[in-house]
Amino acid sequence: MGEVIVITSGKGGVGKTTTTANLGTGLAALGNKVVLIDTDIGLRNLDVVMGLENRIVYDLVDVTQGHCRLRQALIKDKRFDGLFLLPAAQTKDKTAVSTDDMKKLCNELKEEFDYVLVDCPAGIEQGFKNAIAGAERALIVTTPEVSAVRDADRIVGLLEANGLRGPKLIINRIRPDMVKRGDMMNIEDMLDILAIELMGVVPEDEYIVVSTNKGEPAVLDMNSRAGQAYRNIAKRVTGEVVSLINLEYDEGLLNKLKRLLGL
Amino acid sequence: MEPVIFKGNREGVVVQLNSNLSFEELCTKIEAKIKSVDSFLGNNTEVIINSGSVVFNDGQAQKLKGLFNSMGLCIKKFVPEVNQQRVEVNDMSIPEIIEDENHFLSQGSTLMVRRNLRSGQTIFHEGTVIIFGDVNPGAEIIALGHILVLGNLRGIAHAGARGDTRAVVFASRLLPTQLRIADFITRAPDGEILVPSEPEIARIKNGMVVIEKYLQK
Q1: The pTM is what?
Q2: In A10, A84, B23, B174, which residue has its Cα 20 to 30 A from B43's Cα atom?
Q3: CA of A90, closest CA in chain B: separation in Å?
Q4: What integer is the mean pLDDT of B186-209?
Q5: What's the complex ipTM?
């Protein structure tokens, strides 16, 4: 019996889809059977980030409306045999799926997979309600900006109200140099406000843009710092204890120094 | 139930007064009772008056003392203690306000919240609200009475929301987005935000919202 984990943030553009793609790929690379569900109906992206756009025949709405069997809509990943994607429909909207549909779907998928990752759309409307309906755990993605943290806080409250307790935090796109200068919120500031457990810190990395455009998750690139952070997060999701942030923090600064001096 | 009972315990002789009677009637009963047990008690025996839920005022206590003295007994102490007239304090220190029972009663019940209040969550209560946790930015508490936050207050707090200017807002760390008491609205000055290092309390003084350290030196 697997686990259903929703990746959500409230605010848009903080990296939910990137996190879903990388975490899913990272978990699959560790040998798990993983399925990614894109619930952003009408604005689907996960398939593009995974580089699987051209293989879509059926989607989430086709499954819930009974136009096809679940198996037919699952797209197998190019790289890992244990990784699948259930894409969103692009031509419908969020109301095409109900929370009951999602609960049923998640229950069905977790019978077969070790991890069911649900990529949540931005906002707190129907799409959000659908995404969290079948979830047992939640990962909240935020960036070191007041607006993103504010939205994350709202999400924590809504998750609690829906009985999803103990969400964990992923801080994305942090820039250690800016934090050091005091120009960016630091990790402690964010944890102080949100008061939830930290799951990982992902440094800002140009390579993410490259990988997203290529449809190759950064987690597979051994030189990418963000990729390393996602590999650590994937391990933590499986329950392994991997030393947190501080290491990544120092490593980032050291690398920067090395690059400045060495190159 | 007997209105007047004599009992002995470790502290001495206790006179228990269980009564809904008026003070005058009680005095007559006491007199009769003491006469009936006269032989048991020596002269000048010290007694403790236990009046249960009834609290005597200064005048009544004096009368009782006189009555007992005339019967050859001496009152050592009253339980509960005689209600002293409250001393009016010009500069209302905080414990005074909060311990003012009548004020509390007029403000309805007290709501205790044992969690963090997050963005988008609001609490409205017709009385005093106590939060055991943080109130984050985007959260709002509206109370007709006081607001006490045993944590960080970063959201909006409105105490005395129906115009009670005696209401106070207390927080372990008072950093509200906006602070409202009765029909006064304040916010932190623009620019550098000073993070308080100790508990603070806000209330209205001379037509202004004043924030002070809770623990006065």
Answers
A1: 0.70
A2: B23
A3: 30
A4: 88
A5: 0.75
